[in-house]
């Protein structure tokens, strides 16, 4: 039996949640509750639906056009172990993993000692969009992020170099 996730929704094909055609899983539950959030219905930890990771993998595997999977929210790191399992399984199908989080890269990497599931998910993430959405820094012209404080990070390069490596998509 695979892990279960509480999700707010799934979009089987998206071109606005990362590069290429993407399968998007929206985590249910978010501690950040950023004012002006694009997905306020994902804030409650009680809402959404429960689904097995293997069922999500099966859905994603049906589409050979997918470049990757995107985890959005809500806050995927609050269900780090389940999303890490999902990332591992879709990675074996050849998909890349993009994760949106209200935490910063630094908060995640230093928080791994207390929250080991964060380490599991960050290690299986290729691209990370980090930082809380800030309404006063909102910019609709930005690709794949909502406010100017957020960063798009190449996780593998950042881990290898020991510093944040941002990318433009």
UniProtKB/TrEMBL annotation:
Q: List the cofactors.
A: [4Fe-4S] cluster
Task: Extract the CDD domains matched here.
Answer: Radical_SAM (cd01335)
Q: Which is an annotated Pfam family here?
A: Fer4_12
Gene Ontology molecular function, alphabetical: 4 iron, 4 sulfur cluster binding; [formate-C-acetyltransferase]-activating enzyme activity; metal ion binding; ribonucleoside-diphosphate reductase activity, thioredoxin disulfide as acceptor
The major lineage groups are:
Bacteria, Bacillati, Bacillota, Clostridia, Eubacteriales
Alphabetical keyword list: 4Fe-4S, Iron, Iron-sulfur, Metal-binding, Oxidoreductase, S-adenosyl-L-methionine
Against PROSITE patterns, the record matches this protein to:
RADICAL_ACTIVATING
Protein name, UniProt field? Anaerobic ribonucleoside-triphosphate reductase-activating protein
What EC class does the entry list?
Answer: oxidoreductase
Q: Which reaction(s) does the protein catalyse, per the Swiss-Prot or TrEMBL entry?
A: glycyl-[protein] + reduced [flavodoxin] + S-adenosyl-L-methionine = glycin-2-yl radical-[protein] + semiquinone [flavodoxin] + 5'-deoxyadenosine + L-methionine + H(+)
User: What InterPro entries does this protein's entry cite?
Assistant: Aldolase_TIM, NrdG, Organic_radical-activating, Radical_activat_CS, rSAM, rSAM_sf
Q: What is this enzyme's EC?
A: 1.97.1.-
Per the UniProt entry, what species is this protein from, by scientific name? Anaerobacterium chartisolvens
Per the entry, what this protein does is:
Activation of anaerobic ribonucleoside-triphosphate reductase under anaerobic conditions by generation of an organic free radical, using S-adenosylmethionine and reduced flavodoxin as cosubstrates to produce 5'-deoxy-adenosine.
> Keyword Transcription, does the record have it?
no
């Amino acid at each position: 039996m695979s892990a279960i996730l509480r999700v707010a929704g799934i979009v089987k094909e998206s071109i606005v949640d990362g590069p290429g055609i993407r399968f998007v899983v929206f985590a249910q539950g978010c501690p950040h509750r950023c004012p002006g959030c694009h997905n306020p219905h994902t804030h409650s930890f009680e809402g959404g639906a429960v689904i097995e990771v293997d069922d999500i993998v099966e859905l994603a595997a049906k589409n050979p056009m997918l470049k990757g999977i995107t985890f959005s929210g809500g806050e995927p790191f609050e269900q780090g172990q389940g999303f890490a399992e999902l990332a591992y399984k879709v990675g074996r199908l050849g998909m890349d993993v993009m994760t949106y989080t209200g935490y910063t890269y630094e908060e995640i990497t230093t928080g791994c000692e207390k929250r080991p599931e964060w380490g599991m998910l960050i290690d299986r993430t290729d691209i990370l969009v980090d930082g809380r959405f800030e309404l006063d820094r909102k910019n609709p012209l930005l690709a794949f992020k909502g406010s100017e404080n957020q960063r798009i990070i190449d996780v593998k390069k950042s881990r290898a170099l020991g510093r944040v490596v941002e990318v433009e998509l």
